[in-house]
Amino acid sequence: MPAPAILVEDLVKRYGAVEALRGVSLQVPTGSVLGLLGPNGAGKTTAVRILTTLLRPDGGRASVLGVDVTDDPELVRASIGLAGQNAAVDENLTGRENLRLVGRLTHLDPAVVAERSTDLLARFELADAADRLVRTYSGGMRRRLDLAAALVHEPEVLFLDEPTTGLDPRSRTELWAVIEELVGRGTTVLLTTQYLEEADRLADNIVVIDHGTVIAEGTASELKGRLGATVIEVDFAAHDEAARAGTRLESLGSVGVEGQHLRLSVADGAAAMLEVVRTLEAERLQPVAMALREPTLDDVFLTLTGHSAEDGDGEDGDPAPRRASRSRRRDRNGSRG
Amino acid sequence: MTTTTADTVAAGPARTRARSHPVADALTIAWRNLLNIRRNPQLLVFATIQPVIFVLMFRYVFGGAIRGVSGQYGSYINYLMPGVFVQTIVFGSLTTGVGLAEDLQKGLVDRFRSLPMARSAVLVGRTLADLVRNLFVVILMAIVGYLVDWRPQTNALAVAAGIGVVLLFAYTLSWMFAIIGLVTRDSETAQAASFPILAPLVFASSAFVPVTTMPGWLQAFANHQPVSVVVDAVRDLTAGGATQSDVLGALAWMVGIVAVCAPIAVAQYRRVV
């Protein structure tokens, strides 16, 4: 078996008293894509920063293409590309100038840089905007340019730190297509994300981390297989009803309760559904809605960690639509009065 | 410069250990920063309007009142201009820190630090670009000064040396404010943190009025702090005076500031996370 492109062993990083990474180990075979999945604050970005030589680990080892990141960071930098969470492009340069900047800093022949820039801008559908200042670009265009900038020196290993966070669905799909094309060319990719759908679509293997430790790994289907085959979702009118139903249904499978929402993973969906109905009736609990569906990676996360992968998102999470509907209701009342 | 270019071409698409190119990398970063200045001309315009207003206000508002104490220089404007030159570049130097903080905020520094480029280049390139900007501003100030009757009393060589001292001082201050930018990591904080350092240096100095008019306790500070020493040196070089000791004092301050601040800035740049 060939040596992995990225090898991480027992990596530890502390910020004062906070342990961002507590012994993370993972490997990424050459030419494959690893999805590093976890909520905000799980340690994903810290791991990427150590692997891209931006941060020194406090313990453990990390190497890229067989080169240790602390022993020889210079050599590591020559073979990696990094596209970060915030599009790290210069707003006051044009798209082409941004690529030229990276090309010059990686000491490539100017003619090579010019040729690659044109090629990258065309591939990422930025050809028309190539000579416009980046400050006129949309969010999606900036991300694509950021990715292009990470590719100017044709790195063998690419780190993508939450490449689509904050993008609208269309830009996200576009960026996914670009990343898929790259992977098709044999680049090794480590991708961090808090979007389960993203890891599911792009990654060959998924490592789930939470609070600085690996809590699961495998392919998307392996992770889904760990769960029962089916998920039952029940909505209640009040939090305490959902909580009470949660404790009663624990014997059926793995239960997660979030506010008024209850999620139950079971092996045999139909039989469990009947049992759920009987239990709720016996408890005189009246659900608002009930559904039976296939499991997603979000369910995996909920089962493994007890909280949703997108908890960390705060304002962007579930409560927003509810708040919106409440204010709509207020508006209606107002107009009537 | 020619050799650097040749090296770059010879290196080609290197995958193995890249040779270090500190000079070429610093020039690339300087190129990028100068493009930034050119693309935001309004920043430069507003940065220059303020000192122009200072020249006009001090010349016409305070000029009459201060005439008596500046007799040896021929006129107040001759006394004032070295102070305005230094004040302008001192306030301008905080943009070094603000710009660095902005690059940190936007993640550009992360990109630079993940590239196989010289570690010193981001700081050296930025301070070089700021030096070019200061050169532009100082020349503009000199023209405005000339229009309101600033007349150097010495020879062209001494005036050129005076401008040189101003620019060198600007360059040393860039390193000082680079530290503030790297520590605060936020452009607005960097700006707010710089002002309390700048204001006493500029105003409790010999820039606008003779130090002898200040209370005794303030004179002790005002006489020896770097802005006064540099202003005095530039004044000697443009309006005449006992040049040697002031210029040596100014050079000593500059060497001292760079010797202390540059290593701190580089160390801070290496460890920012």
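qc> Chain B has one domain: 20-67+87-271.
qc> done
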